[in-house]
Design goal:
Blueprint lengths: L4 E5 L3 H12 L3 E5 L3 H20 L5 H9 L1 E4 L10 E4 L5 H14 L5 E4 L6 H5 L8 E6 L8 E6 L5 H14 L3 E6 L6 H17 L5 H12 L5 H8 L1 H15 L8 H8 L15
Parallel strand pairs: 1-2, 1-4, 2-3, 4-5, 5-6, 7-8
Antiparallel strand pairs: 6-7
Helix pairs in contact: 1-2, 1-3, 7-9, 7-10, 10-11
Bound molecules: 3-hydroxybutanoyl-coenzyme A.
Length: 283
């Protein structure tokens, strides 16, 4: 499959990362978000990240300008009609994702592929909202998408093998990512292993076992992790952490997968991590 125009729905922290990765790889991107404010926040995030890449010597000025020139924004989902592949990176709300997929199904060409970047919702629950579940798969990127090398490509019971191959081929050959193919199970591979670990760190902090700084330093210095688990929760977003933990708990029913009470309280309090300015740390 040749992607001459990639659609991305949602220019939040994951969506803007995916947009930037594709634009740097030479792909024209049409990104849709709900209003001018969301679009300008997404565009600013991308500009800052492209500038940071230049400052780090990862990109020259010309490549940054070319990448920026490949990105266009719209508020109208119908404008995505020409896209061969659309990656949805909207908030983790099932009904919202379903309505986006139903609307995309109306406007996209019959051969187009619809992918969701969901971290916690079963892909089939979204796919069945379309008249083409065989052309729907998961493409799960990791935060920060510009730096993390993995994409999980998720096949549902209904995804056609050639759609999985096309999505994986695009992620690998065009975006330069390492692809892991996996089944449509809560948490896929990474979150099924990572989220329980992060919840254990939250529970340990809640129990007063050690300070946040000590828990994080322990895993950085004692286990070689690039960042500590509580700092990573703040990076991922505590709302996304909660949704992921709930999804794992709902799927497998194990007590140890239940989100710790502190995680629920922090989300209720609007302490979502970096994006809200406060989480386990202040930003
Ligand atoms: N553009 C391009 N490259 C960039 C960049 C940017 N905007 N920002 C950073 N980089 C590059 C740097 O140049 C550097 O590359 P190098 O190793 O080749 O020199 C590399 O990224 C690391 O950058 P830094 O050295 O400045 O930063 P750190 O060493 O502090 O690393 C981090 C930051 C990459 C976030 C690292 O701490 C890390 O890997 N943390 C773990 C992140 C993680 O686990 N993410 C997955 C979360 S789970 C998820 O997302 C799933 C969801 O569903 C919940």
């Amino acid at each position: 499959m040749t992607v001459t125009l990639l659609g991305v729905v949602g220019a939040g922290s994951m969506g803007s990362g995916i947009i930037e990765v594709a634009a740097k790889a030479g792909v024209a991107v049409l990104a849709r978000d709900i209003d001018a404010a969301a679009i300008s926040a997404g565009a600013r995030r991308i500009d800052e990240s492209l500038d940071a890449a230049v400052q780090r010597g990862k990109l020259d000025d010309r490549a940054r300008d070319l990448a920026r020139g490949r990105i266009e924004f719209t508020t109208d989902l119908a404008d995505l009609a020409r896209c061969e592949l659309v990656i949805e990176a909207a908030p983790e709300l099932l009904e919202l994702k379903r309505s986006i997929f139903a609307a995309l199904d109306e406007v996209l060409g019959p051969d187009a592929i619809l992918a969701t970047n969901t971290s916690s919702i079963p892909v089939i629950d979204i796919a069945m909202e379309t008249g083409r579940p065989e052309r729907v798969c998961g493409m799960h990127f990791f935060n920060p998408a510009t730096v993390m090398k993995l994409v999980e490509v998720v096949a549902t019971q209904r995804t056609a093998p050639e759609v999985v191959d096309a999505a994986a081929g695009f992620a690998e050959e065009v975006l330069g990512k390492r692809v892991v193919r996996c089944k449509d199970r809560a948490g896929f591979v990474v979150n099924a292993l990572l989220v329980p670990f992060l919840c254990q760190a939250i529970a340990m902090f809640e129990a007063g076992h050690a300070t946040a700084e000590d828990i994080d330093d322990a895993m950085k210095l004692g286990a070689g992790h690039p960042m500590g688990p509580l700092a990573l929760c703040d990076l991922i977003g505590l709302d996304i952490m909660l949704w992921s933990a709930e999804s794992l708990h709902a799927e497998y029913g194990e007590r140890f997968l239940a989100p710790p009470p502190l995680l629920r309280r922090m989300v209720a309090a609007g302490q979502l991590g970096r994006k809200s300015g406060t989480g386990f740390y202040d930003y």
